[in-house]
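ENTRY TYPE: paired fold submission
RECORD: A
CONTENT: sequence, then structure tokens
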Amino acid sequence: MNQPLKVEKVFWYVNEQKVPVHIHREARRNSRVSFGKSAVLVRFPLRIAPAEEAKVRSFFNDKLVEWLQKKPQSFDKYQPREYKTGDRLQVGARAYVLDIQHVPEKKGHTGQIEKNGAVSLQLSAAAPDEARRKAVSTLLSRLISWDFKPEIVRRVNELNYLYFKKPVKSVNFKYNHSNWGSCSSTGNLNFSSRLLFAPDDVIDYVIIHELSHLVELNHSDRFWKLVSNAMPDYETQ
């Protein structure tokens, strides 16, 4: 069996803007470029000649420049967010204000939510800029998930009691971008911390979706019937 080719993850500069690009090499006849969730996706045929590939790369770069000129915000989602002291984060009905401190003698990164709702982060000043940026995103995800967890657990229990009545072993959050949630065969429910920024009806849909897996650990017609029974208009969420 042929091993799948690794995705080549690089950066292209589009009008001096650094853009992440994921290059796939596939059994196809032509090349194409498209916008993915986390990067621009470029697909090349397996047997493309180096000279032809260089020509296509140049063409795609020109195409991206053209898109950027027509829609200046096209690549905003690929740029890492920079947080600073005083930034306000609105999550549902709650507002958090950031207080970021760079501590010279500190080796790691820590944070806590204060009684007044401020999110206080203490970052190691010795860490590289990229490491500190990732630490801020990770800490915010962890702290806000912890702050909201009682509400999500309460909603899980409410929906479970109304429609499923199955044992739930645990409810946890993960800093996950690949899916909204998951359910194990032992009754562990995991949700992406991104879910906290979604509307209430979307949160309910994801919870119901995962609770349905406590009955049907698949996506069969029986599974979707369970989802539909609990949320008849789920397809519009």
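RECORD: B
CONTENT: sequence, then structure tokens
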Amino acid sequence: MTQRRDFIKQLGLGSIGLSIAPSLAFKHTVPFVTDMRSLRILFQGDSITDGGRWPDSNDWNHLVGQSYPYLISAKLGFDYPNRDLLFFNRGVSGNTVTDLKRRWQKDCLALKPDILSVLVGINDVNAVIHDRPGAGTVNSFESDYREILQQARALNPQLVIILCDPFVFPQAAITAIFEKYALELNQRQEVVQRLAVEFKAIHLPLWTAFKKAIKLAPISHWCWDGVHPMPAGHELIARAWIKATSKSLGIQSGVEY
């Protein structure tokens, strides 16, 4: 018991170990906010979004994953504790846009999002590069992508959509065939840009953001295999996402990228 009292005393806690000393009291200044709407925010995509989440778990240590949706939900959840911001991660490793289409009812429409963020495309490119069964064309990519966005917007005409450009860099095994990747990817980036205009969506040009970041540190600092971001790369995406969506969220982002 004496050891416990000594430990509590060293921590600066109260005599019964329950109260917090004034010098350690939690202080929080809420950043500028323009509204107090409750929002359901859904992240959709492949492994970059998935982030190793446990899809069938109720354990919040693993539910959101370890990628940019986690960073976004952590920052906004801390900055705006008095807002009802609910975050859902439904990224699935290896998914193409056709895979999203197959699970769209369960993993999007049924969740009734107010804000929908999509990052998909690199696995569509992989399928073409490696001549995998069922690999889609650029036209089928656009058709499937448009269909799922139409369904989501039809369910919620006020839905805010964020479309993120897929990206790839000459790292690891991709280096030798980077030109093939770049050709296929560029065509799908153009699709994303067209759909962003068509659906009046927020367009997030992540490839451009990463290319700016490479001026500060080599791509290996941001992306370890040409496809999957390093922790710094996920932070880059998170900051870019918050900056791009701040007006729709009714917040002041206060970040640059």
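NOTES ON RECORD B: Residues 13-20 have pLDDT under 50 and may be disordered. Residues 204 and 241 are 7 Å apart (CA to CA).
STATUS: closed
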